[in-house]
Structures are given as structure tokens and as C-alpha cells.
Design a protein that fits this description.
Distance between the termini: 77 Å
Strand content: 25-35%
Mean pLDDT: 94
CATH class of the largest domain: Mainly Beta
Number of domains: 3
Strand order of the largest sheet: 8-11-14-17-20-25-28-31-34-37-39-40
CATH superfamily of the largest domain: Hexapeptide repeat proteins
Low-confidence stretches: none
Structural class: alpha/beta
Number of strands: 40
Radius of gyration: 26 Å
Length: about 350
Amino acid sequence: MEFTARQIAEVLEGDTVGNPEEVVDRFAKIEEGTTRSLSFLANPKYTHYIYDTASSVVIVNRDFEPEKKVAATLIRVDDAYQSFARLLNWYDSLRSNKEGVESGAFIDESAQIGENVFIASGVYIGPNVVIGDGVKIFPHCYLGDNVRIGAGTTLFAGVRIEYDCAIGQNCRIHGGVTIGGDGFGFAPNSEETYDKVAQIGNVVVEDNVEIGANTTIDRATIGSTIIKKGVKLDNLIQIAHNVVIGEHTVIAAQTGIAGSVKVGKNCMIGGQVGIAGHLTIGDNVKIAAQSGISSDVKEGSVLMGSPGFSLKDFRKSYIHFRKLSDLVARIEALESGEK
């Protein structure tokens, strides 16, 4: 798609300096710009690139004053970084703005399909599925019996949503996600093997949730696994049966959360964190990457380490840990009677 500097300025409510009819058709970093590309300058450390960038158009802050000639057309805005992010979202919405049902999609006759939807080839939609207005479902998605998809939600290629699960409005679910697979439920028996415990609950994903590629969210044994509104999940996360993730919590990649954990709202959980089962994590908790959580966490705590403990205490302890070999040598010297 092609856009002029004038059109972009109108979208961003900015002012054009230079040629308003300059055309762009791609995005680029300012240091990697090429003809017909659009870049932005927000961080002062990159300012020197603007004087020799090959980008045709650059978004800058209103207070930017060039020290020498700039060849590119400038678009002045209140906040260059936020405006560039807005523009990326706007462009992405245009790029994926598709409607209609492609040939090769299977839709059960009992399914209810809203208006202005897009259903790609290779999609399977099972009995009694309900799909809201403006939903977009890309190729090779699977929606099992009785699934509900709220208005404005996008399912990218290869998403699987198993039976009885419900997805809210304006969610974005990326490729390879599985929602509603069986929870890890097995009971030991007298023969020292394991009997499977049927997982008959579901998963409920509330509004405005984003779920990264290849993340898995298991259905509850009974009841629901719940991802509350505004939650943002990175790629490759495992969320077990009957977990509840509170509103607006964000979780980074490769984190694993065991069964029946309750995570509060507005938490920030780093990558590769492991959380043991049946714990309660309070609101506004921050957990650093690769931490291991084996006990309940109070509201507002900031944790690091495995097992995780106070970040302040962890940093103090780590100073001693780095000196451990010296401390051991001194103790051994004292024990042997050396000075």
C-alpha cells in the first residue's frame, strides 16, 4: 500500500515540513532507510542519522530543530514514538481488513455467523459455534462445538479452540495457540500407573486479551480456566487447568503456571518464570525472569530468584554469592590454622 506524507500527517494530526506528496510504501529504521520508506526519530541518540537517512519521510517530535539540512520530508507530531506506534496499528488494521467466506472453509449449518466477518479457506467451525460481528479467522483454524467468539476478535492462522470455550471481544490470538486442551489430570491407582481424570470444564478469555504464538491454555477439570480482560500473554506460555489470570496482567515468554494458581491484576511476570500449583499471587506483583515461585506472594511484592524472594534481599545475597569462592578459601585457611 502507498501513502503520501499528507495522508499520514492527517492520520497522526501532524504537520508536514517538505513535500506533502512524498510517497512511501514501507517502514524502516532511520539508520536503514531507503527511498519510499517511512521512519521515525524519538531517541536523541539516533538524531545524527536524520541528516543522511535515505528514508523519504521521517516522523519527528514537534520540538525537533535540525542543525543542518534534512533531505527527508518531516511530519511533526507531539510524540514521535507514540505516533509511529499508532501508525503501525492503523496500517496493520488496513492490511488485515478482509471480509467474506473463502471457498474451502467448513461451517456447520447450526453455527451462527455475525456480519462483516472473514473466514479463510481451511477453517473448521463446528456445531453451535457463535461468531460475533467483525471477527476475522485466518486459514487452518479449528473451532470446536459450542465455541463463542466475541465481536472484533482476530484468530490468526493455525489457532485451535476446543469445545465449549469462550473468547471475548477485540481479542488477538496468534498462530499455533491452543485453547481448551486437556488439563494435566491423572490419578495414581493401585497398579502404580495413572488413570486419566476427565477434564470437562472450559476456558474463558475475556475482552481485549492478546495471546502470543504457540501459547497453550488448558481447560479446567471442572469450572473454568479464566483469562481476564486486558491480559497480554507472550509466545510459548503454558497455563494449566483452573488457573485465573487477573485483569491487565502481562506475562513474558516460556513462563509456566501450574494448576489452580490465582494471579492478581496488573502483575508483571518475566520470561521463563515457573509458578507451582495452587498458589495465590497478589495484585501488582512483579516477578523477574527465570524466578521460581513455590509459595503465595503478597500484593505489591517484587521477587527474583529460585525460589523467588525479595528483589532487595536477592541483590544483597548475590553480592556474597559472587565472593563465595574467596569466603570458602578464607574459612578453610582459618580451619587449618593459617594466617
